[in-house]
Amino acid sequence: MGQGPSTSALQQCIQGVANNRANFAAFAGSPLYQIQWVKPYNLDVPVEPAAVVRPETAQDISDIIKCANANGVKVQAKSGGHSYQNYGAGGSDGAVAIDMVNFQKFSMDTKTWYATIGAGNRLGEVDKKMHAQGGRAMAHGVCPGVGLGGHATIGGLGPMSRMWGSALDHIVEVEVVTADGKIQRASATQNEDLFWALRGSASGFGVITEFVVRTHPEPANVVQYEYTIKLGKQADVAPLYSKWQALMADPKLDRRFGSMFIMFPLGAIITGTFYGTQEEFLTTGIPNALPQDGNGHLVINDWLGGLAHDAEKEALYLSGLAMPFVSRSLAFKRQDLLGPEKIKDIFNWVDTQKKGTLLWFIIFDAAGGAIEDIPQNATAFAHRDKVMYYQSYGIGLPVTKTTKDFITGFHDQVVQKAGPGTWGTYPGYVNNALVDQQKQYWDSNLPALEQIKARWDPKDLFHNPGSVRPVKN
Ligand SMILES: Cc1cc2nc3c(=O)[nH]c(=O)nc-3n(C[C@H](O)[C@H](O)[C@H](O)COP(=O)(O)OP(=O)(O)OC[C@H]3O[C@@H](n4cnc5c(N)ncnc54)[C@H](O)[C@@H]3O)c2cc1C
Predict the structure, then answer these.
(1) How far is it, in rounded angstroms, from Cα 345 to Cα 340?
(2) Is any atom of ligand 1 closer than 6 Å to the C-beta of 158?
(3) Which of 49, 236, 248, 444 has its CA 20 to 30 A from that of 223?
(4) Which UniProt keywords apply (predicted)?
(5) Measured between alpha carbons, how far is residue 178 from residues 59, 75, 82, 455 in Å?
(6) pLDDT tens-digit profile of 54-79?
(7) Shortest-distance Cα residue to atom 13 of ligand 1
(8) Which residue out of 44, 100, 122, 151 has the highest number of ligand 1 atoms within 8 Å of its CB and is therefore the one to mutate?
(9) Whose C-alpha lies nearest to ligand 1, atom 28?
(10) CA–CA distances in Å: residue 231 to residues 266, 344, 392
């Protein structure tokens, strides 16, 4: 166990839970604390938890929560550690981070095809285990290093989401440790209000130890489209974006197709994933709406090959490795999407700006489809009506003011051009610069969340800078 400079009451309590187990906990001030224990993802966001603990059982988590409660310290679970603002480490100094690395359980019920998955599994592991145990699959994002614990509790959007919904739409039941230290089950029939909140806002409500999720047979065929254009000027790319946006916002678009548009310093990339055969893809008519010149090509894959291809492409612009970066995001309803003239103005603006880095990306990510089928108030996830997200990244060693100004300026341009609206953003793409973050993340679901928070965690034990606060009575 790591040793801090002094033995605080919190430390003593956690050491009591550890009961001489090695590698159970480390405390602020321990040697190699940041590198071996905290492991922040965004190196531009310094954060020092009071302790990082690696429990082995739900009972350990319960005991650690009691230690944090007794010492007035905040708590955050950490599963894959891929929060843009290091929320798994607390997001601000002094929290207890509960690292779920030992929660790697996986089993498949071959009658119901429900999988039971430990919260510490990362998405790449989930895919491999589901494939091995019956050729099953669920919807989620593209980065294999993201943790199921932080992903399926906030949303979980990926190329198959237009077809199957978000990752959290697959959750049937969870085991969760709540602020009073109790180990509970939550589902549509047990602790229903908590279950509702955990699907979209779990960081403020408990530590999930395992998920029970419904699964689908994995599609046998995957067609991947990729188009790269290196014009060097974003203004020249704007018409391409407008055309792509019109395709992706069409309510009748075949749900087996998911796609992203990525601006990068040399031009743009369009990636698309279609779950079906090449013949089926051709009959959808989608290829006719995508750029046809020699810059595009198709790759034919099976399910696992398709996932690996998406992950590899993503790693070109957004690595699973820790780095310093600044990022912003915003979500658009169909009626708020920018028209061609405004798109041209924004892309022109990008050309005129100093970036301060060669590593910047602006990703437009299409949603809609099956995500839209579910009512806005069915879970805490509040972006059912959003058909497009933008996310920006400016990476630097360190991130300079010029880069920060560019990323902020881009956001301001979009907001200004879009005019007054209620876009909000997906809390999985943390945008800590938003005014009234919680309202922007949970929108019309926020008042109910604040009530449920007051019931289950009135002292706001589970806390990060963007999490739900209890309603004040
Ligand atoms: C490289 C990269 C690619 C990404 N791609 C996508 C994508 O394609 N689609 C998408 O939707 N999102 C994507 N994201 C965003 C990602 O889904 C969120 O950042 C997610 O919250 C990360 O989960 P984590 O477990 O890895 O992170 P952590 O930092 O461990 O946790 C993030 C938050 O979730 C909470 N949490 C974690 N585990 C639990 C648990 N067991 N119980 C309760 N709360 C918990 C933490 O307390 C913290 O507040 C991406 C992020 C990165 C860095």
Answers:
(1) 9
(2) yes
(3) 236
(4) FAD, Flavoprotein, Oxidoreductase
(5) 12, 11, 23, 11
(6) 999 999 999 999 999 999 999 999 99
(7) 141
(8) 151
(9) 81
(10) 6, 15, 20
